[in-house]
TrEMBL record:
PANTHER family: EAMA DOMAIN-CONTAINING PROTEIN, INNER MEMBRANE TRANSPORTER
Pfam family, one: EamA
Keyword field contains Transmembrane helix: yes
Location within or outside the cell: Membrane
Signal peptide, first to last residue: none
GO cellular component, one term: membrane
Chief site of localization: membrane
TM segment ranges: 7-24, 30-52, 64-84, 90-110, 117-136, 142-162, 174-193, 205-223, 235-254, 260-276
Protein name according to UniProt: ABC transporter permease
Topology of this chain in the membrane: Multi-pass membrane protein
C-alpha cells in the first residue's frame, strides 16, 4: 500500500482511542481502572491468539512481555494515575510529549537522524493539545505529573522497540502476543488492589466489548502495522489524534461547549500532525544507493 494509505489506517487507531474517555465515563462502572484494563487487554489478546493460532516462540517470550508491559501494563496504570491526580487536559498534554520522546529514543536505539522539522512539529502539536484541553482551573500535582511523563515515556519506548524488534509474523499475531502479555501482567495487580466488579449491565458489557474488540484488538493491530511500515516519529505524531477525537466526541455526544481557543488548538494539532508526516518522510536515495542523510 502507499504511504498515505498507511498513514490513514494507522491514524484510525488513536482516533478510535479517543472514544475511551467517553465509553469509560458513560458505559463502565467507576473505580475499577486496573480491572477494566485487564478486561480490555486479556480477552482481546486471547481472542487474537485463537484466530491467528500463532504463539510466540521461546526466544520471543521475554520481548513480548517487555513490549506488553511498556505498551499496555505500565502505560495504562500510569495513565490512570495521571488521570486521577491531574485535570484531563494536563494529563493529555503530558502524553502529547510522547512524540518528542520517540524522536530522541529512535535516534539512540534505531540510529534515526533527528529532523528539525519533526522536532518543531512535535513541539507545536503539544502546544495545540494544551490549547485544546487545558483550562484556567488546571493544577499540577507532582505525582500526577510524574505519572503522566512516565506513561508517555513507556508508550514511546514501546513504540520504538516494537519497530526495532519485528518478528516474522503478521501484525495481528504481534498484537496478540503483546495484549496477552500485558493483560497477564495486570491481572494479579487487579486482584490485589481492587475489589470484585459488581454485576455488569448490558451497557457495561457493550462498553467492554467496544474497548476490547475495537479499542484494543483491531486498533492496536493497525497501530503495530503502522509501526512496522512508517517512521516511529511519524507514527507517534498520529497519537495526537486521540485527544482531538475525545474533544470532538464530548462536543457532539455530550453537548460540551468549545471556546475559540480550543478551536484554534484543534487546528494547530491537525496542522502539526500533517507537518509531522511530511517532516518524517523517508529521505530519497542517491543514484549509488546511499541515503542523503548518510551522504551528508
Amino acid at each position: 500500500m502507499s504511504r498515505p494509505s498507511d498513514i490513514v489506517l494507522t491514524a484510525l487507531a488513536p482516533a478510535i482511542w479517543g472514544s475511551t474517555y467517553l465509553i469509560t465515563t458513560e458505559a463502565l462502572p467507576a473505580g475499577y481502572p486496573v480491572t477494566l484494563a485487564v478486561l480490555r487487554a486479556l480477552p482481546a489478546g486471547v481472542l487474537l491468539l485463537a484466530l491467528t493460532r500463532c504463539l510466540p516462540p521461546r526466544d520471543w517470550l521475554a520481548r513480548s512481555f517487555l513490549l506488553g508491559s511498556l505498551n499496555f501494563s505500565v502505560f495504562w496504570v500510569l495513565l490512570f494515575v495521571a488521570a486521577y491526580r491531574l485535570p484531563g487536559g494536563v494529563a493529555a498534554t503530558l502524553g502529547a510529549l510522547q512524540a518528542m520522546m520517540v524522536i530522541l529514543m529512535a535516534r539512540g536505539w534505531l540510529g534515526t537522524p533527528i529532523q528539525s522539522g519533526a522536532v518543531a512539529a512535535a513541539a507545536v502539536g503539544a502546544v495545540g493539545v494544551a490549547l485544546l484541553l487545558i483550562g484556567p482551573e488546571a493544577r499540577l500535582d507532582p505525582i500526577g505529573v510524574a505519572a503522566g511523563l512516565g506513561g508517555a515515556a513507556s508508550m514511546a519506548a514501546g513504540t520504538v522497540l516494537s519497530r526495532r524488534w519485528q518478528p516474522p509474523v503478521t501484525a495481528l499475531s504481534f498484537t496478540a502476543w503483546q495484549l496477552t502479555a500485558g493483560g497477564l501482567i495486570l491481572l494479579p495487580i487487579a486482584v490485589l488492589v481492587e475489589p470484585p466488579l459488581p454485576p455488569l449491565s448490558a451497557t457495561n458489557l457493550a462498553g467492554l466489548a467496544w474497548l476490547g474488540l475495537v479499542g484494543a484488538a483491531a486498533t492496536y493491530a493497525l497501530w503495530f502495522r503502522g509501526v512496522a511500515r512508517l517512521e516511529p516519529a511519524a507514527v507517534s505524531m498520529l497519537g495526537m489524534m486521540s485527544p482531538l477525537t475525545a474533544v470532538v466526541l464530548g462536543w457532539v455526544w455530550l453537548g460540551q461547549s468549545l471556546s475559540p481557543v480550543q478551536f484554534a488548538g484543534a487546528a494547530i494539532v491537525l496542522g502539526a500532525v500533517w507537518a509531522g508526516q511530511r517532516a518524517n518522510r523517508p529521505l530519497a536515495s542517491l543514484p549509488d544507493g546511499t541515503s542523503r542523510a548518510k551522504a551528508a
